[in-house]
Amino acid sequence: MISQEYEDSGNETSGDDVDFAMEVEAGAAFTTNEDYQFEVLSTDDIVQYMTDTIKDVNTVVQMPAATTRTLLNFFNWDKEKLLERFYDGNQDELFREAHVVSPFKRVSVTKPKFSRKILGTEECEICFMVLHQSQMTGLECGHRFCYPCWNEYLTTKVMEEGVGKSIACAAHNCPILVDDQSAMRLLNDPQIRVKYQHLITSSFVECNRLLRWCPGPDCNYAIKVAYVDALPVTCRCGHVFCFACGEHWHEPVRCELLRRWIKKCDEDSETSNWIAANTKECPKCNATIVKDGGCNHMVCKNQSCKADFCWVCLGPWEPHGSSWYSCNRYDDHEAKAARDAQDRSRAELQRYLFYCNRYMNHMQSLRFENKLYEEVQAKMDEMQDNNMGWIEVQFLKRAVDILCKCRQTLMYTYVFAYYLRKNNQSVIFEDNQKDLESSTELLSEYLERDITQENLPNIKQEAQDKYMYCNLRRIALLGHVHEGYEKGWWEYTD
């Protein structure tokens, strides 16, 4: 992780469960992350980054920090776009669109409603309490309410609605936004102030294309990069993910295909495929029917239909007579189309299950492989207790590292293969996939052997040979896929 200063603000300029030990927009090539510079930011670092951005803008425009922060929120923290609009456009229109009072001209402030009973008191327009002026406060728009009402209003917005940067004035139809300083001043509960700060910080990170929250469980760090790319980044919590899409690092499949795969797995589309593969529709009324007996003579149970048809060919039952097995001679166009659609659905389901089962199998194996770290660490400690050096036993950890990387790569190769159209290069890819899979299984099996003081020298040499070969096969597979991206070899199914 390399810290550095960035001239680019990194913000958008348009409107536009295994924790793996180790993603990619269409058009982006796979490269190593050796030159990919990124920095892990804590919450305090993010706040400081926000403060620095505000100071950078204020050195040019000379506005109150609260106003600048609201304007930056409006432009998704794109300071270049803010400055361009500030100097090239209508400033009054800019402040009006951002729902902030211009600090450069005097505004007409709504006069407070003084109580006729006691001089120096005001009536809160929310609770209608008559209070001393010192117990009332408001924003630049001039609307004033008592402190308890402000606190209740802001607390509701923050805790119940989850609103941070876009809280409007409590007055009816007033568009002016509550700035951060005012919100922090008016909120009483420290926990609610922390929640508000978290909402503001989250909004800042989500608006900034060079920042991304770490998706690791219970992690509060963010990653800051010099430029956006589909490359792996490693958080301080140890989680490794693709900066472009936020998923686990998924080489060799690209982000776009992975999104399609995850959506396909999450949705109920496969339930529909199962229904299509295991049920049929009545050729007359289209009612869905499940065959629950051996007889192929179907009678629709829809009382208004009761059609007789053949389960095999979906044609009328009458021409079959007693020789139902001769229905292949029946070539009615509609029945043939129904059979063809059924076959296509069943074939597609089987194809999906083929790749999905292998994908899930490697994911499950990866879970077991991660547990190997604990066993290996215990074995390494035992070996060091028997007067072996720390360096001598590191081959075990290295072997498990390589094994996990190979498992993860194999897992995502099946996503890649599912969408891949067949051609000469896809055959080479499948050969590389087969070689990596077989060598990975051999390494996994070998690491489950018992290691003793007597067989250690042989096991060490053989384990090193096996994990080095696995790593070479993994590099070869990824290199071939990478070359295919560069040369346009790969074509995908819809």
Automatic annotation (TrEMBL):
Keywords: Metal-binding, Repeat, Transferase, Ubl conjugation pathway, Zinc, Zinc-finger. It catalyses: [E2 ubiquitin-conjugating enzyme]-S-ubiquitinyl-L-cysteine + [acceptor protein]-L-lysine = [E2 ubiquitin-conjugating enzyme]-L-cysteine + [acceptor protein]-N(6)-ubiquitinyl-L-lysine. One of its GO terms (biological process) is protein ubiquitination. GO terms for molecular function: ubiquitin protein ligase activity; zinc ion binding. It holds the Pfam family Ariadne. Its EC number is 2.3.2.31. Residues 120-331, 124-176 form the RING-type domain. It comes from the Eukaryota. InterPro entries: Ariadne, ARIH1-like_UBL, E3_UB_ligase_RBR, IBR_dom, TRIAD_supradom, Znf_RING, Znf_RING/FYVE/PHD. It is an enzyme of class 2 (transferase). PANTHER family: RBR FAMILY RING FINGER AND IBR DOMAIN-CONTAINING. Belongs to the RBR family. Ariadne subfamily. This is RBR-type E3 ubiquitin transferase. It comes from Photinus pyralis (Common eastern firefly).
